[in-house]
Amino acid sequence: MKKNQIILIVVTLIFTGIIYFIILYNKKEEIKETKGENTTKYVSVQVIQNQKRSLKTFSYGQISPYTELDVAFEIQGKLEKGAYDMKPGRRFKFNDLLYKINSEEMYFTLSARKAQLANLLIKVMADIELDYPNESEKWNEFLEKISPTGFLPQFPKFQSDKEKKFITAKGIYTEYLNIKSLEARMTKYLFMAPFNGFVVDIYAEPGSIINPGTRIAKIANADHMEVKLPIPLDLFEKFKEKGSVKFLNSENEAIGTGSILRVTNLVNQNTQSIDVYYSIKPFKNTTIISGQHLTAEIDNLISESMCAIPSTAVKNNQVFILKNTQFEKKSVKILGSKQDSLFVDGLNDSDTLILEYNEPNKKIKKYIGIERQ
């Protein structure tokens, strides 16, 4: 090969190599510039300013009777109706006769025992007038008050041991106590309303043969109602401190107030709340009904360090703040909510809050906050 050709080839190779390195260098610069664009990201932020706030908090519950009772008898017999046809929803008043057990047999037995007591007294009246002339009047009055249809009168008081021994020896006092026992048993044939209330459910109808302890009906107290409210653990102390709540109906109208009756000692594992039972006192001319759903409102929950932030900034009680162009995770305590905002404490004044909760991207080297107006 000629010398000139070799020189030409060498020059061509050198020139080609130079062009290649220029192109390669330019590509690296482009890649570097592209990477540089991805290492910085702008995010929406909020500069925190804590304030004292009057915060309304809500919970939701349902009205239920404070007292519910099962109607049952201690004796066996045929069930009969009382003053009402007992059906679910029927209202009644205190001391109304709700049910009774057929007591015809018991009535005749009791009447016979009273007649027997009267005969015992008649047999000894001559001796009483002779031996205890000053006491004969009270025994005559006692005898006259013994009636087959009424309760026995009070037994006369003994004025001496001799009189007591005489009456006891004749079996009069023993028979009196036996009849009083039957009278006490006679009251068990009647079920009188223990309060103003209403019928919840019916389990047996008149005409049925009832055994002792058989459930006949369930009744509820209409004068005393309560509402069970699930209270979040972090708000429980404030609800307890406040003590009272205002109740609103489904139309957001205030219908009454309530105060704490009792608190359960068990935390609901699913909701992390405690069930608190409140009384309910309706406003004048307001009707409340068992089973009615209510909203409980409590206000003036004050916190020294509270701020309102978007709910999108919080996840599992944690937020991100922007510090030195980097994300920093911080725990917060949620005190309440309003529409799309949460009231929290745990953030310091001038903290820069990231408004969208997202885990930081490792490729981003620098975050720049833009405050949302």
The side-by-side strand order for the widest beta sheet comes to 2-11-14-13-12-16
CATH architecture of the largest domain: Beta Barrel
What overall geometry do the principal axes of the alpha carbons give? rod-shaped
For the CA atoms, what is the radius of gyration? 44 Å
CATH superfamily of the largest domain: Efflux pump adaptor protein, beta barrel domain
CATH fold-level name of the largest domain = Elongation Factor Tu (Ef-tu), domain 3
Largest sheet: 6 strands, antiparallel, barrel
Characteristic key phrases:
6 helices; OB fold (Dihydrolipoamide Acetyltransferase, E2P); 29% helix; conserved putative lor/sdh protein from methanococcus maripaludis s2 fold; Elongation Factor Tu (Ef-tu), domain 3; rod-shaped; 373 residues; six-stranded antiparallel β-barrel; 23 strands; alpha+beta; 4 domains; single chain; four-stranded antiparallel sheet
Textual characterization of the structure:
It is a single chain. The protein is an alpha+beta fold. It folds into four domains: 79 residues, conserved putative lor/sdh protein from methanococcus maripaludis s2 fold (Beta Barrel); 86 residues, Beta Barrel (Elongation Factor Tu (Ef-tu), domain 3); 58 residues, RNA polymerase II/Efflux pump adaptor protein, barrel-sandwich hybrid domain (OB fold (Dihydrolipoamide Acetyltransferase, E2P)); 84 residues, no CATH class. It contains six helices and 23 strands. The strands form six sheets. A six-stranded antiparallel beta barrel has the order 2-11-14-13-12-16. Strands 3-10-8-5 form a four-stranded antiparallel sheet, with no helix packed on it. The protein is rod-shaped. The chain starts with a helix and ends with a strand. About 2% of the residues have low confidence.
